[in-house]
Fold this protein.
Amino acid sequence: MTGKILIVDDESAARWALETLLRREGFEVRDASSGERALEECAAFCPDLILLDILMPGLNGFEVCRRIKATPETRLTPVVLITGLSDTHDRIEGINAGADDFLSKPIDMNELLARTRSLLRIKQVTDELESAEVVLESLALSIEARDPYTRGHCDRLAEMSVGLGLRLGLPAEELKALRQGGIVHDIGKVMIPDAILLKPGPLTAEEVAVIRKHPEAGERICAPLKTFRLVLPIIRHHHEKFDGSGYPDGLRGEEIPLTARILQLADVYDALTTDRVYRRAGPQEQALAIMEREAELHWWDRSLFDEFRTMIQAGQKMAVKGAN
């Protein structure tokens, strides 16, 4: 097994001993003598594993770990805290900082190698999962590109959905699901022929039935990826309606997951305010008026729509103010 390892310790002898052992085992190794330098190396070296001493001048290991785990590019990089401290309080602080494992001084080199290989295997699996997410998102964007009228649709949905989620105070994992859902919600359209997807005139009943299969198809495509567990309900249910007249399951009211209700509002608004093959785009206020009437018909979550409308109108006011 190979991998890139960053050793962080203010003691040169400790760094040298660990670096010698790990290079002998075939790992690519760099070192840093301070917390500040460690953060620079993380950005430049992109390590697969970080061995981090706790007691250092300046930024200590706890703070370095917190910053690594707070940075999107490095948050999934395993961090092993190396300490001579045996106090339970210090281990708890390390766990709260995001540490993945601990090693106590003096270090048992066999234990070090065993933990290193174990964490690198986990990192490899994590990287493969992230690659799968990228592939799915790329596929979704390629589907969007089939229709010149919907270019940018996915990014706009992701932005609006996350914006509404922030206003509602949703947790970070649901905000991430909204962003991913905005990108991949229509991935099931890969199975719809262009003759139907891009048809300029009215669809037949049979063609509508084909279109309505795309949420379930999208869910099946993404289901094997366990990291998409919060995204799957968005994919499946973003065409449900509050009165139960939507598809594919005819869910009613709060049976529809909140994240799906958020994305469906963004989806409808974007469809009304952008050119489509079957009609021209309408202005913002016209789109909101149409959605208002639909909310009165109980198609949408009324309170959620009110919050969405406030967000859109506030954004328009900011844009006008900026233009002035």
Observations:
- The chain has two domains: 4-126, 146-323.
- Residues 109-145 form the longest helix (37 residues).
- The radius of gyration is 25 Å.
- Residues 317-324 have pLDDT under 50 and may be disordered.
